[in-house]
Amino acid sequence: MSFLRNSIKLLRTAPVAPRTFRCFSSQVKADDPSQFPGAHAPFVSAPTLTLPEAVAPIPIYRVMNREGTIEDASQDPKLSQEVVEKMFRSMISLNTMDKILYESQRQGRISFYMTNFGEEASHIGSAAALENKDLIYGQYREAGVLVWRGFSIEQFIDQCYGNCEDIGKGKQMPVHYGSKDLNFVTISSPLATQMPQAVGAAYAFKRQPNNDRCVVCYFGEGAASEGDAHAAFNFAATLDCPVILFCRNNGFAISTPSHEQYAGDGIAGRGPAYGIATIRVDGTDVFAVYNAMKVAREYVLKHNKPIVFEAMAYRVSHHSTSDDSTAYRKAEELEVWNTVESPISKLKNYMIKKGWWNEEAETEFVKDIRKQVLKQINVSEKKQKGYYGEMFQDVYEEMPKHLKEQLKQLEEHVSKNKQHYSLNEFKSK
Protein backbone atom coordinates (compact mmCIF):
# COMPACT_ATOMS: atom_id res chain seq x y z
CA MET A 1 0.00 0.00 0.00
CA SER A 2 1.34 3.39 -0.95
CA PHE A 3 2.54 5.96 1.53
CA LEU A 4 -0.36 8.30 0.76
CA ARG A 5 -2.91 5.54 1.31
CA ASN A 6 -1.27 4.71 4.62
CA SER A 7 -1.30 8.39 5.52
CA ILE A 8 -4.98 8.72 4.68
CA LYS A 9 -5.80 5.61 6.68
CA LEU A 10 -3.80 6.76 9.69
CA LEU A 11 -5.08 10.33 9.62
CA ARG A 12 -8.71 9.34 9.14
CA THR A 13 -8.64 6.83 11.94
CA ALA A 14 -6.54 8.86 14.35
CA PRO A 15 -8.33 8.76 17.70
CA VAL A 16 -9.27 11.94 19.49
CA ALA A 17 -7.04 12.30 22.54
CA PRO A 18 -9.05 11.62 25.71
CA ARG A 19 -9.57 14.47 28.13
CA THR A 20 -9.87 12.22 31.19
CA PHE A 21 -7.13 10.10 32.73
CA ARG A 22 -7.11 6.46 31.71
CA CYS A 23 -4.89 3.75 33.19
CA PHE A 24 -3.21 1.22 30.92
CA SER A 25 -4.13 -1.71 33.14
CA SER A 26 -6.47 -2.49 35.99
CA GLN A 27 -3.41 -3.88 37.77
CA VAL A 28 -1.74 -0.47 38.04
CA LYS A 29 -1.17 0.45 41.67
CA ALA A 30 -2.34 3.72 43.13
CA ASP A 31 1.25 4.88 43.65
CA ASP A 32 2.44 3.65 40.24
CA PRO A 33 4.41 6.47 38.47
CA SER A 34 2.69 5.61 35.19
CA GLN A 35 -0.32 7.47 36.51
CA PHE A 36 1.46 10.81 36.25
CA PRO A 37 -0.57 13.03 33.90
CA GLY A 38 2.51 14.37 32.11
CA ALA A 39 3.20 11.32 29.91
CA HIS A 40 2.08 7.72 29.34
CA ALA A 41 4.90 5.35 28.50
CA PRO A 42 6.04 1.81 29.26
CA PHE A 43 8.54 1.08 32.03
CA VAL A 44 12.04 -0.26 31.43
CA SER A 45 14.35 -1.87 33.99
CA ALA A 46 17.47 0.09 33.01
CA PRO A 47 18.15 3.72 32.11
CA THR A 48 17.67 4.12 28.36
CA LEU A 49 18.71 7.01 26.15
CA THR A 50 16.55 7.60 23.11
CA LEU A 51 19.09 8.87 20.59
CA PRO A 52 17.93 11.01 17.65
CA GLU A 53 19.63 8.70 15.13
CA ALA A 54 17.60 5.78 16.48
CA VAL A 55 14.34 7.41 15.39
CA ALA A 56 13.49 6.89 11.71
CA PRO A 57 13.09 10.14 9.75
CA ILE A 58 9.61 11.01 8.53
CA PRO A 59 9.42 9.91 4.86
CA ILE A 60 8.98 12.31 1.96
CA TYR A 61 5.90 11.65 -0.16
CA ARG A 62 6.51 11.94 -3.90
CA VAL A 63 4.28 11.36 -6.93
CA MET A 64 6.43 12.46 -9.90
CA ASN A 65 10.11 11.87 -10.46
CA ARG A 66 12.30 14.43 -12.19
CA GLU A 67 11.30 13.05 -15.61
CA GLY A 68 7.67 13.87 -14.86
CA THR A 69 6.70 10.20 -14.56
CA ILE A 70 4.12 9.20 -11.95
CA GLU A 71 5.80 6.32 -10.15
CA ASP A 72 2.68 4.79 -8.61
CA ALA A 73 -0.42 4.98 -10.80
CA SER A 74 -2.67 4.93 -7.72
CA GLN A 75 -1.25 8.34 -6.76
CA ASP A 76 -2.19 10.04 -10.02
CA PRO A 77 -4.57 12.86 -8.96
CA LYS A 78 -6.19 12.47 -12.40
CA LEU A 79 -6.55 16.20 -12.85
CA SER A 80 -8.05 17.44 -16.09
CA GLN A 81 -5.93 19.03 -18.78
CA GLU A 82 -7.56 22.36 -17.96
CA VAL A 83 -6.50 22.21 -14.30
CA VAL A 84 -2.95 21.04 -15.08
CA GLU A 85 -2.54 23.78 -17.65
CA LYS A 86 -3.75 26.33 -15.10
CA MET A 87 -1.12 25.01 -12.67
CA PHE A 88 1.59 25.33 -15.32
CA ARG A 89 0.50 28.78 -16.47
CA SER A 90 0.30 29.99 -12.86
CA MET A 91 3.87 28.85 -12.21
CA ILE A 92 5.09 30.42 -15.45
CA SER A 93 3.26 33.69 -14.66
CA LEU A 94 4.80 33.85 -11.19
CA ASN A 95 8.25 33.02 -12.55
CA THR A 96 8.04 35.67 -15.29
CA MET A 97 6.74 38.38 -12.97
CA ASP A 98 9.49 37.59 -10.46
CA LYS A 99 12.24 38.02 -13.02
CA ILE A 100 11.01 41.43 -14.14
CA LEU A 101 10.24 42.83 -10.68
CA TYR A 102 13.59 41.61 -9.37
CA GLU A 103 15.27 43.61 -12.12
CA SER A 104 13.03 46.58 -11.31
CA GLN A 105 14.48 46.63 -7.81
CA ARG A 106 18.00 46.41 -9.21
CA GLN A 107 17.19 49.44 -11.37
CA GLY A 108 16.08 51.34 -8.27
CA ARG A 109 12.43 51.49 -9.31
CA ILE A 110 11.17 49.66 -6.21
CA SER A 111 12.87 49.32 -2.83
CA PHE A 112 12.80 45.56 -2.22
CA TYR A 113 11.75 42.26 -3.77
CA MET A 114 11.69 38.53 -3.09
CA THR A 115 11.40 35.89 -5.79
CA ASN A 116 9.81 32.44 -5.56
CA PHE A 117 12.13 30.43 -7.83
CA GLY A 118 12.18 26.74 -6.90
CA GLU A 119 9.10 26.89 -4.68
CA GLU A 120 6.37 27.36 -7.26
CA ALA A 121 4.94 23.84 -6.81
CA SER A 122 4.38 24.24 -3.07
CA HIS A 123 2.33 27.40 -3.73
CA ILE A 124 0.27 26.16 -6.65
CA GLY A 125 -0.19 22.57 -5.49
CA SER A 126 -1.45 23.64 -2.06
CA ALA A 127 -3.65 26.47 -3.38
CA ALA A 128 -5.30 24.16 -5.92
CA ALA A 129 -6.22 21.67 -3.19
CA LEU A 130 -7.82 24.27 -0.93
CA GLU A 131 -11.13 26.09 -1.10
CA ASN A 132 -10.98 29.84 -1.72
CA LYS A 133 -12.89 30.34 1.53
CA ASP A 134 -10.00 28.83 3.51
CA LEU A 135 -8.03 31.53 5.30
CA ILE A 136 -4.36 32.01 4.39
CA TYR A 137 -1.63 33.43 6.58
CA GLY A 138 1.48 33.85 4.45
CA GLN A 139 5.04 34.62 5.41
CA TYR A 140 6.31 36.48 2.34
CA ARG A 141 7.09 33.86 -0.28
CA GLU A 142 3.60 32.58 -1.15
CA ALA A 143 2.72 34.83 -4.08
CA GLY A 144 1.72 31.75 -6.10
CA VAL A 145 -1.25 31.20 -3.79
CA LEU A 146 -2.50 34.66 -4.73
CA VAL A 147 -1.84 34.00 -8.43
CA TRP A 148 -3.99 30.88 -8.22
CA ARG A 149 -6.79 32.71 -6.42
CA GLY A 150 -6.92 35.50 -8.98
CA PHE A 151 -4.80 38.36 -7.63
CA SER A 152 -4.09 40.40 -10.76
CA ILE A 153 -0.79 41.59 -12.19
CA GLU A 154 -2.00 45.13 -11.58
CA GLN A 155 -2.61 44.38 -7.89
CA PHE A 156 0.82 42.76 -7.48
CA ILE A 157 2.66 45.67 -9.07
CA ASP A 158 0.59 48.42 -7.44
CA GLN A 159 1.50 46.90 -4.08
CA CYS A 160 5.21 46.75 -4.93
CA TYR A 161 5.11 50.42 -5.95
CA GLY A 162 2.97 51.41 -2.96
CA ASN A 163 0.82 53.77 -4.99
CA CYS A 164 -2.70 55.08 -4.40
CA GLU A 165 -4.23 51.95 -5.98
CA ASP A 166 -2.37 49.60 -3.65
CA ILE A 167 -4.87 47.69 -1.50
CA GLY A 168 -2.55 48.24 1.48
CA LYS A 169 -2.42 52.01 0.80
CA GLY A 170 1.37 51.97 0.53
CA LYS A 171 1.83 51.09 4.19
CA GLN A 172 3.75 47.88 3.59
CA MET A 173 7.09 46.96 2.03
CA PRO A 174 6.94 45.47 -1.47
CA VAL A 175 5.76 41.81 -1.67
CA HIS A 176 3.81 42.20 1.58
CA TYR A 177 0.51 41.43 -0.11
CA GLY A 178 -2.93 41.04 1.37
CA SER A 179 -6.47 40.59 0.06
CA LYS A 180 -9.63 40.41 2.11
CA ASP A 181 -11.58 39.30 -0.97
CA LEU A 182 -9.22 36.34 -1.48
CA ASN A 183 -9.00 35.44 2.23
CA PHE A 184 -5.28 36.19 2.33
CA VAL A 185 -4.20 38.01 5.49
CA THR A 186 -1.75 40.86 4.86
CA ILE A 187 1.85 39.72 5.25
CA SER A 188 3.95 41.06 8.10
CA SER A 189 7.75 41.24 7.98
CA PRO A 190 8.72 39.96 11.45
CA LEU A 191 9.25 36.20 11.26
CA ALA A 192 6.61 33.84 12.66
CA THR A 193 4.24 36.50 14.03
CA GLN A 194 1.55 35.05 11.77
CA MET A 195 1.78 31.57 13.31
CA PRO A 196 0.02 32.07 16.68
CA GLN A 197 -2.39 34.43 14.91
CA ALA A 198 -3.31 31.67 12.45
CA VAL A 199 -3.89 29.21 15.29
CA GLY A 200 -6.17 31.75 16.97
CA ALA A 201 -8.16 32.21 13.78
CA ALA A 202 -8.50 28.43 13.42
CA TYR A 203 -9.75 28.21 17.00
CA ALA A 204 -12.37 30.86 16.19
CA PHE A 205 -13.47 28.84 13.14
CA LYS A 206 -13.74 25.72 15.26
CA ARG A 207 -16.15 27.44 17.61
CA GLN A 208 -18.51 28.36 14.77
CA PRO A 209 -21.43 25.96 14.17
CA ASN A 210 -20.98 23.71 11.12
CA ASN A 211 -17.60 25.19 10.30
CA ASP A 212 -16.28 24.19 6.87
CA ARG A 213 -13.20 26.45 6.70
CA CYS A 214 -9.65 25.72 7.73
CA VAL A 215 -6.64 27.98 8.18
CA VAL A 216 -3.34 27.46 6.36
CA CYS A 217 -0.28 29.12 7.84
CA TYR A 218 2.81 29.21 5.61
CA PHE A 219 6.25 29.71 7.13
CA GLY A 220 9.86 28.83 6.40
CA GLU A 221 12.20 26.55 8.31
CA GLY A 222 14.05 29.65 9.47
CA ALA A 223 10.87 31.09 10.97
CA ALA A 224 10.40 27.80 12.82
CA SER A 225 13.42 28.77 14.95
CA GLU A 226 11.46 31.68 16.39
CA GLY A 227 9.69 31.39 19.72
CA ASP A 228 6.34 32.20 18.14
CA ALA A 229 6.56 28.96 16.14
CA HIS A 230 6.78 26.82 19.27
CA ALA A 231 3.93 28.70 20.90
CA ALA A 232 1.83 28.15 17.78
CA PHE A 233 2.57 24.41 17.68
CA ASN A 234 1.64 24.01 21.31
CA PHE A 235 -1.55 26.09 21.15
CA ALA A 236 -2.65 24.29 17.98
CA ALA A 237 -2.14 20.90 19.61
CA THR A 238 -3.69 21.62 22.99
CA LEU A 239 -6.64 23.62 21.66
CA ASP A 240 -7.36 21.19 18.79
CA CYS A 241 -7.42 23.78 16.03
CA PRO A 242 -8.21 23.11 12.34
CA VAL A 243 -4.97 24.65 11.07
CA ILE A 244 -2.43 23.37 8.55
CA LEU A 245 1.00 24.55 9.63
CA PHE A 246 2.71 24.56 6.23
CA CYS A 247 6.49 24.74 6.38
CA ARG A 248 8.33 25.60 3.18
CA ASN A 249 11.67 24.03 4.00
CA ASN A 250 13.82 25.53 1.23
CA GLY A 251 17.11 24.76 2.92
CA PHE A 252 18.57 28.18 3.59
CA ALA A 253 16.26 30.40 5.67
CA ILE A 254 17.64 33.94 5.35
CA SER A 255 21.17 33.03 4.21
CA THR A 256 21.49 30.37 6.93
CA PRO A 257 21.76 26.70 5.81
CA SER A 258 19.31 24.35 7.49
CA HIS A 259 22.03 22.41 9.31
CA GLU A 260 22.74 25.60 11.25
CA GLN A 261 19.04 26.09 12.01
CA TYR A 262 18.25 22.73 13.60
CA ALA A 263 19.77 19.33 14.41
CA GLY A 264 16.59 17.23 14.39
CA ASP A 265 14.46 15.71 11.64
CA GLY A 266 13.57 18.92 9.87
CA ILE A 267 10.38 20.65 10.93
CA ALA A 268 8.16 17.61 10.39
CA GLY A 269 9.95 15.89 13.28
CA ARG A 270 8.48 18.44 15.67
CA GLY A 271 4.93 17.42 14.89
CA PRO A 272 4.90 14.11 16.85
CA ALA A 273 6.77 15.80 19.71
CA TYR A 274 3.89 18.25 20.09
CA GLY A 275 1.25 15.58 19.50
CA ILE A 276 0.38 16.85 16.01
CA ALA A 277 -0.32 14.72 12.94
CA THR A 278 2.42 15.26 10.37
CA ILE A 279 3.08 14.78 6.67
CA ARG A 280 6.18 15.56 4.62
CA VAL A 281 6.21 15.95 0.85
CA ASP A 282 8.45 16.70 -2.09
CA GLY A 283 7.83 20.43 -2.49
CA THR A 284 9.09 20.40 -6.08
CA ASP A 285 6.32 17.97 -7.07
CA VAL A 286 3.05 19.84 -7.61
CA PHE A 287 0.99 16.62 -7.54
CA ALA A 288 2.50 15.42 -4.26
CA VAL A 289 1.70 18.78 -2.66
CA TYR A 290 -1.81 18.71 -4.13
CA ASN A 291 -2.61 15.15 -2.95
CA ALA A 292 -1.17 15.67 0.51
CA MET A 293 -2.97 18.98 0.97
CA LYS A 294 -6.27 17.30 0.13
CA VAL A 295 -5.58 14.75 2.87
CA ALA A 296 -4.52 17.46 5.32
CA ARG A 297 -7.57 19.62 4.74
CA GLU A 298 -9.93 16.67 5.15
CA TYR A 299 -8.22 15.66 8.38
CA VAL A 300 -8.19 19.05 10.11
CA LEU A 301 -11.85 19.68 9.34
CA LYS A 302 -13.01 16.20 10.28
CA HIS A 303 -11.11 16.00 13.56
CA ASN A 304 -10.69 19.69 14.47
CA LYS A 305 -7.00 19.02 14.88
CA PRO A 306 -3.86 20.56 13.38
CA ILE A 307 -1.34 19.14 10.94
CA VAL A 308 2.31 19.97 10.44
CA PHE A 309 2.89 19.92 6.68
CA GLU A 310 6.51 20.12 5.52
CA ALA A 311 7.28 20.73 1.84
CA MET A 312 10.92 20.00 1.06
CA ALA A 313 12.32 22.29 -1.63
CA TYR A 314 15.34 24.38 -2.57
CA ARG A 315 15.46 28.16 -2.68
CA VAL A 316 16.99 28.75 -6.09
CA SER A 317 16.92 32.52 -5.75
CA HIS A 318 18.71 34.77 -3.31
CA HIS A 319 16.68 35.16 -0.14
CA SER A 320 15.77 38.67 -1.28
CA THR A 321 17.33 41.61 -3.06
CA SER A 322 19.24 42.16 0.19
CA ASP A 323 21.02 38.80 -0.06
CA ASP A 324 23.84 37.26 -2.10
CA SER A 325 23.47 33.48 -1.95
CA THR A 326 26.77 32.83 -3.74
CA ALA A 327 28.41 33.47 -0.37
CA TYR A 328 27.02 30.26 1.12
CA ARG A 329 26.41 27.79 -1.75
CA LYS A 330 27.95 26.66 -5.02
CA ALA A 331 26.78 27.62 -8.51
CA GLU A 332 26.88 23.96 -9.59
CA GLU A 333 24.37 23.09 -6.89
CA LEU A 334 22.06 25.87 -8.00
CA GLU A 335 22.19 24.65 -11.59
CA VAL A 336 20.82 21.22 -10.66
CA TRP A 337 17.86 22.65 -8.77
CA ASN A 338 17.19 25.21 -11.46
CA THR A 339 16.98 22.57 -14.20
CA VAL A 340 16.27 18.88 -13.62
CA GLU A 341 14.85 19.42 -10.12
CA SER A 342 12.82 22.48 -11.08
CA PRO A 343 9.09 22.22 -10.27
CA ILE A 344 8.27 23.79 -13.62
CA SER A 345 10.50 21.34 -15.53
CA LYS A 346 8.92 18.34 -13.81
CA LEU A 347 5.38 19.46 -14.61
CA LYS A 348 6.40 20.30 -18.17
CA ASN A 349 7.83 16.77 -18.60
CA TYR A 350 4.54 15.34 -17.33
CA MET A 351 2.56 17.44 -19.80
CA ILE A 352 4.84 16.40 -22.68
CA LYS A 353 4.16 12.74 -21.89
CA LYS A 354 0.41 13.48 -21.89
CA GLY A 355 0.62 15.41 -25.15
CA TRP A 356 -0.63 18.55 -23.38
CA TRP A 357 2.41 20.77 -23.88
CA ASN A 358 3.11 23.01 -26.82
CA GLU A 359 6.42 24.88 -26.97
CA GLU A 360 5.08 27.54 -29.30
CA ALA A 361 2.06 28.16 -27.06
CA GLU A 362 4.32 28.43 -24.00
CA THR A 363 6.60 30.92 -25.74
CA GLU A 364 3.64 33.07 -26.72
CA PHE A 365 2.22 32.87 -23.19
CA VAL A 366 5.52 34.02 -21.66
CA LYS A 367 5.73 36.89 -24.15
CA ASP A 368 2.20 37.95 -23.27
CA ILE A 369 2.87 37.87 -19.51
CA ARG A 370 6.09 39.83 -19.97
CA LYS A 371 4.23 42.43 -22.00
CA GLN A 372 1.51 42.72 -19.34
CA VAL A 373 4.02 43.07 -16.50
CA LEU A 374 6.19 45.64 -18.28
CA LYS A 375 3.17 47.68 -19.33
CA GLN A 376 1.77 47.61 -15.79
CA ILE A 377 5.09 48.71 -14.30
CA ASN A 378 5.04 51.78 -16.54
CA VAL A 379 1.48 52.52 -15.41
CA SER A 380 1.95 51.77 -11.69
CA GLU A 381 5.08 53.84 -11.21
CA LYS A 382 3.31 56.89 -12.66
CA LYS A 383 0.36 56.65 -10.27
CA GLN A 384 0.34 59.04 -7.35
CA LYS A 385 1.07 57.95 -3.83
CA GLY A 386 -1.84 57.95 -1.42
CA TYR A 387 -2.73 60.92 0.75
CA TYR A 388 0.05 61.20 3.33
CA GLY A 389 -2.47 61.62 6.14
CA GLU A 390 -3.57 58.02 5.62
CA MET A 391 -0.66 56.94 7.79
CA PHE A 392 -2.87 57.80 10.76
CA GLN A 393 -5.86 55.86 9.50
CA ASP A 394 -6.90 52.19 9.69
CA VAL A 395 -5.27 51.66 13.08
CA TYR A 396 -8.42 52.21 15.12
CA GLU A 397 -12.04 51.96 14.02
CA GLU A 398 -12.39 55.57 15.10
CA MET A 399 -9.30 57.78 15.15
CA PRO A 400 -8.47 58.71 18.77
CA LYS A 401 -7.81 62.26 19.91
CA HIS A 402 -4.01 62.05 20.05
CA LEU A 403 -3.79 60.83 16.44
CA LYS A 404 -6.17 63.57 15.28
CA GLU A 405 -3.87 66.10 16.92
CA GLN A 406 -0.79 64.61 15.26
CA LEU A 407 -2.51 64.60 11.87
CA LYS A 408 -3.45 68.26 12.30
CA GLN A 409 0.13 69.13 13.22
CA LEU A 410 1.44 67.32 10.13
CA GLU A 411 -0.99 69.08 7.82
CA GLU A 412 -0.07 72.46 9.29
CA HIS A 413 3.64 71.70 8.91
CA VAL A 414 3.26 70.61 5.27
CA SER A 415 1.11 73.65 4.48
CA LYS A 416 3.81 76.00 5.81
CA ASN A 417 6.65 74.19 4.05
CA LYS A 418 5.18 73.20 0.69
CA GLN A 419 8.32 74.20 -1.16
CA HIS A 420 10.26 71.37 0.52
CA TYR A 421 7.88 68.55 -0.44
CA SER A 422 6.91 67.01 -3.80
CA LEU A 423 3.20 67.23 -3.04
CA ASN A 424 2.28 66.59 -6.66
CA GLU A 425 3.37 62.98 -6.11
CA PHE A 426 0.64 62.50 -3.49
CA LYS A 427 -3.12 62.47 -3.74
CA SER A 428 -4.83 65.33 -1.99
CA LYS A 429 -7.03 64.79 1.03
Helix content range: 40-55%
Measure the end-to-end span.
Answer: 65 Å
Tell me the Rg in angstroms. 24 Å
Broad structural category:
alpha/beta
CATH class of the largest domain: Alpha Beta
Instruction: Please report which band the strand proportion falls in: under 5%, 5-15%, 15-25%, 25-35%, 35-45% or over 45%.
Output: 5-15%
* Average pLDDT, all residues: 92
Task: Name the descriptors.
six-stranded parallel beta sheet, 429 residues, Rossmann fold, 14 helices
Could you explain how this protein is built, in words?
The protein is an alpha/beta fold. The protein has 3 domains: 2-54, no CATH class; 73-382, Thiamin diphosphate (ThDP)-binding fold, Pyr/PP domains (Rossmann fold, 3-Layer(aba) Sandwich), CATH 3.40.50; 388-425, no CATH class. It has helices at residues 3-13, 81-106, 120-129, 143-149, 153-161, 194-206, 227-239, 258-261, 270-274, 286-303, 331-338, 343-354, 359-380, 401-416; strands at residues 135-137, 184-185, 215-220, 243-249, 277-282, 307-312. Strand 3, helix 7 (227-239) and strand 4 form a beta-alpha-beta unit. Helix 1 runs parallel beside helix 10, helix 2 (81-106) packs across helix 3 and helix 6 packs parallel to helix 7. It starts with a helix and ends in a 13-residue tail after the last helix. Residues 12-31 have low confidence and may be disordered.
